[in-house]
Structures are given as C-alpha cells and as structure tokens.
Amino acid sequence: MGMGELLLLGVGLSMDAFAVSVCKGLAMKRSSVKAGLTCGIWFGGFQALMPLIGFFLGSMFAEAIQSVDHWVAFGLLVLIGVNMLREAFSPEEDGGCSECADADLSVKSMFVMAVATSIDALAVGISLAMAGDVAIFAAVGIIGVCTFTLSAVGVGVGSVFGSRFEQKAQIAGGVILVILGVKILLEHLGVLV
Questions:
Q1: DSSP three-state, residue 39
Q2: 3-state secondary structure of 32
Q3: At residue 128, what are phi and psi to the nearest 5 degrees?
Q4: Beta carbons of 58 and 125 less than 8 angstroms apart
Q5: What tens digit of pLDDT does each residue of 121-160 get?
Q6: Of 5, 18, 34, 110, which is most buried, counting CB atoms within 10 Å of its CB?
C-alpha cells in the first residue's frame, strides 16, 4: 500500500472522529485551542492504536487464511464503509450529534468517544494484515496524524459552521473505505497491477 492510499485510509478512518469533534464544537459556547487539542489527542491516539492492535491480531491468523485474506480485507473495509454510509443517511431523531451533544471533555467522556470512534480502525488493522505489504508503523502514524488534525479542526468547524459537514464527512469516509476494499480485492485477483 502506497503513501497516497495510506493517506486516503487515514482520512477515511478519521471521518467519524471529525464528525464527533464537530458535535463537540457545536455544544461549546466558544471553542478553544485546548478543546481542539484534547479532541485531537484522544481521537488521534486511539485511531493510531487500534489498527496497530488489529494488525498484530490479524498477523497471527494471516498464514492460516492466506488463500482468502484478500476477501477478508475486502469484506471488512466494505462493511465498515457501508456502515458509515448507512449512518450518514439514517434520519436522526434530534437533528444530529445525538451521541455527543455535550461539550464534556473529561477523561471518562473522551475515553468512551475515542473507543467508540476507533472500533472500525481495529477491523481495518486486521484487514491491513491480510492485505500484506503494509508498513504498519507508517500506516498508524498517518492515521493518527490525520485523525488528530481533522479532530482538532472539527471542534473549530463545529463552533463556527454548525453541523453542515457532519453528514458529508461520514459519506466521504464510507466511500473511501469501500474503494480501498475493492482495490485490495482487484489487486489480489490480478485485475489491477
């Protein structure tokens, strides 16, 4: 996987965290650099940690399922991407941002949000192990930096622009993950070189 693909993966994975950060910014009377950094560190840290854990878990089983690993990687990425798209188009009962409508930046609140937004990154880490030829430390670094940056910016965007970007971020993330899954499958089937 090249740097361009890793960057796309990082952006795609960071869209959930960006959307939550936008919601946090919406709930604040006035956002601050500290609030942006807090969201960035929590979300970026967990988005980097979870694929690393997933990669090592996937590596343990990669040899056993080598004949179908590309199908596993494809399935996981498409499943996550389609789920993001489904969430983006599902009607919200209270106008969006329901799970993060408060401006609470406490350790407990941020831990729960960071874990919730990074579960898909764990599955992506497993798919990276199945895809093979991935510099995992470069991948998690890029994912972490992308998420940190977009989360920190998301707080400011939420306080200035409102929730206009939440659905678009979810859609973009879902489409990127589906495209990467299809690309991995087509490469392993020999359709793309």
A1: helix
A2: coil
A3: -65, -35
A4: yes
A5: 888 888 888 777 788 999 999 999 999 999 999 888 887 8
A6: 18
